[in-house]
Prior knowledge:
With 183 residues, the chain is of the alpha+beta class. Helix content is 26%, strand content 22%. Strands 1, 2, 3, 4 and 5 form a five-stranded antiparallel sheet that branches. Strands 6-7 form a two-stranded antiparallel sheet.
Amino acid sequence: MGLLPGPPSATLRPHQRGYLTYRYLIALGSNRRHQRFGRPRDVLKAALERLEEKGAAIEAAGPIMLTDPIGPSLRRYANSAAVIETVLEPGALLALLKGIEREFGRRTGGQRWTSRVLDLDIVLWSGGTFAAPGLTIPHILFRERPFVLAPAARIAGGWRDPITGLSIRQLHSRLTRPGTIRR
């Protein structure tokens, strides 16, 4: 039986139907309340539910961590990570993630790193590296971000960065060990 292209059905996970699937590590962040979903941590949970509704299988969800903001925002972030499985290739997944961000009230443009209801980033994928306008995998800055590496290490610690060859657990350890200077 060959691998079939096409959309997943609602009753079976993609790999159970013979479709070619991909695994992704997604970073999630929020530091603004949502009128319907509430606190940032609840926004992250609702975003994972929305991803599932759109056909992605959530293989693992990391712990939600509260972290200090980068840049001009004064509000602390709720951050997490998830490993998902989907039939979508990177460009199509990015479009889906951006659509979910818009559904949750995210607006494009304006000042970088300001407060936001929802931020969804592709960090890694099972295909190794990927580059296209507007999307680079692995995420360019993930190695420098403890708020991405800490929850990711809990759910995908052995996943290797295709650029450095180091596991997420090793990258997190290097970034957070005593005496490490953060940029």
